[in-house]
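SAMPLE LOG
Freezer: B-3
Tube label: C17
Construct: single chain, 362 aa
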Amino acid sequence: MYKKIVCIFLSIIISTILVFSMCNYFFNRYRLFDYDKQYLYGNVNERFVKMAYVIEHKDEFDGFLFGSSRVAKINTTLLPGKVFNFGCNSCSAPEEWLRDIKIMIDNDVSIRKIYLGLDDLFLKDSADRTQRYIELNHYVTGLEKAKYYMKVLMKVPDFKDIKMQIKNDFSDVIKIDLNNGMTVVPEKIEVDIENDKFGHIKSKKFKKSHYYDDKYARLESAISSLEEINWLCEVNNIDLVIFFNPVHVRTYVDNDIYLLNEGKKRVAKIKPYYDFSGINFITTNNYFWYETSHPRAFVGDYMMNVLTGKNLETVPKYFGDLVTADNINLHLQKKVIERTKWLAKENYTQYIPSVEDKYKFH
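STRUCTURE (predicted):
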């Protein structure tokens, strides 16, 4: 009798594992078993899939853009050559970029140019801390890769996700285009904003900042990783371009301006960069933001136009300052003064574009 119960119990366990594995394999949301499909739906597992795709297409790209989810929506087709967007959710630590760049070099991936998009998070997010709350892993090989595949196969299937795949209805889901790595925002989100601009800019979500506690500050580690990235680029004849992302004013003023400025000063000693952060037309107007952490996708177009010097007539005035080791002190003094003036203001006028002025900022 006891033996029979054990056999039934084991049969149930084995059957459950088989069902889970088949669901996760054939529906393959995590895109581990098929890199040929164009889209990865949702940002789960994106670092692994992006790296696996890049390694399989090692001679296809000229450059790579690294950064957090704040750069993931940037349209890299606006940059020279074919640039793959390696921006990933919760991937804002330079240690992570360094590790990924080393993996690319070790796997003979062709790299001519690297873009790094920094912001306040690069001083606070460590690879170890972010890894704890990312649902799945960064790119691994060997035994770790085998363990990772097993972990994915054994996960409890998301039957809501399976239903969505069966219906082939991904209209409300963020997707990642593996042809260029770019995160594609559902059209409905943009349409809803445009149909109710006033309601969007007055939304309560803009009263809450995406501030990360300074207890996570790790300036020396972040700068050390950036210095090593710069060294790797020099010895491998890779052109390195650095820029600071815009940060919504609500989040920007909650940050420690002196910690951020010290980080900017140290980065200027490594490489000149464009700074899109601070108090400016983009960062102070809610129209350009999904919430107080992520700029809307088209803001990335403005940034890329500044980096390339093209279509500057579409870019708002004073968006993007070129910072060097020679002008860094003056630049940071200006940032402190602008922040102080902004905090002293009592009323804030929000911009709502008309059809005529949307692309005519000068």
